[in-house]
Specification:
The protein is an alpha/beta fold. It has 2 domains: 95 residues, no CATH class; 98 residues, no CATH class. It is 32% helix and 24% strand. It contains 8 helices and 11 strands. The strands form 3 sheets. The protein has a 6-stranded mixed beta sheet with strand order 6-7-10-8-9-11. The longest helix has 24 residues.
Length: 229
């Protein structure tokens, strides 16, 4: 969810071309570029990209970005300054459950929605409960804002009031994701040296380490896990 320029798709094609792929990318140009990768690799029978942003409802939103491949493009500017973006585009939104309802199996979800992850998860409740996929999700970095070492190049110089506001918003965002996943029976983990470290703290996300692996607790006995530290 948030296919961007197709990095996950490209990695999947290198790993195993037989694994089906469904991507969602609200940028029309971005979705077109991903569709070109699919067509060039001749996997359109099992791989597809949909030009839509996932949410918990059908509708429209404004996507803020600095270009078609901007990895920080977002519909949520409560967690970073709107002033850093040069472009805004109206995009279509839809719930993931609608698009995945007929899929016989969903083993893995990669969610990178730059601050809109909670609504994406809510729109996938049925899929998550039915298939219990492994979920890799990005949590917006918090630690650098707390330490006042955030990237000025990426966010500009923030006033103290604004910095504290973004910390509060990002912590609220992380808690809402954690609570949603825990309601579905998931453990929040990190991948360390090819092993899962279980029950880690979302609030420790930073610019070097902000992807979390979430696994349904019923699947943990089948995986190599370590206790959280």
């Amino acid at each position: 969810m948030g296919a961007n320029i197709g990095r996950v798709l490209t990695a999947l094609l290198r790993y195993d071309r037989s694994i089906p792929y469904i991507g969602f990318e609200p940028s029309i140009k971005g979705a077109y570029n991903v569709s070109q990768i699919i067509n060039e690799n001749r996997v359109s029978a099992t791989h597809r990209i949909l030009p839509i942003g996932l949410s918990d409802k059908t509708g429209y939103a404004t996507l803020f970005s600095n270009g078609e491949a901007d990895v920080s493009a977002t519909i949520n500017v409560s967690t970073r300054p709107a002033s850093i973006y040069r472009h805004n585009t109206i995009i279509s939104l839809g719930a993931g459950d609608y698009y995945l309802v007929n899929e016989p199996s969903v083993a893995f979800l990669k969610i990178d929605a730059e601050g809109a992850e909670t609504s994406v998860l809510k729109g996938l409740c049925g899929t998550i409960d039915r298939h219990k996929p492994v979920i890799v999700i990005e949590i917006l970095p918090i630690r650098e804002l707390e330490l006042n070492t955030y990237s000025r190049e990426a966010m500009g110089e923030l006033s103290e009031e604004t910095r504290l506001q973004f910390i509060a918003e990002r912590r609220l965002h992380a808690r809402s994701i954690r609570d949603c996943l825990e309601r579905h029976g998931y453990a929040i983990c990190k991948l360390r040296q090819r092993k899962l470290v279980m029950d880690v703290d979302f609030m420790q996300s930073n610019y070097d380490d902000y992807d979390f692996v979430c696994v349904h607790r019923s699947l943990l006995p089948d995986l190599r896990v370590l206790p959280g530290t």
